[in-house]
Design goal:
67% of the residues lie in helices and 0% in strands. It has 54 residues and is mainly alpha-helical.
């Protein structure tokens, strides 16, 4: 009975679950609130070793 539940109900929902998870991550990444933080992360390779900004 449990195997039937998994095969018929839960397995087809994996695609939906992964799509919702992916869209949530994309939404989080493109929020304007995160823009400044991601821009500062992008500047890390360009910083000097003596630069103490973090």
């Amino acid at each position: 009975m449990l195997e039937t539940l998994v095969n018929e109900v839960l397995r087809p929902l994996w695609g939906l679950w992964l799509m919702v998870l992916f869209l949530g991550i994309v939404f989080w990444a493109y929020r304007p609130k995160n823009k400044d933080r991601f821009e500062s992360y992008a500047d890390i390779p360009l910083r000097d070793d003596e630069d103490k900004e973090r």
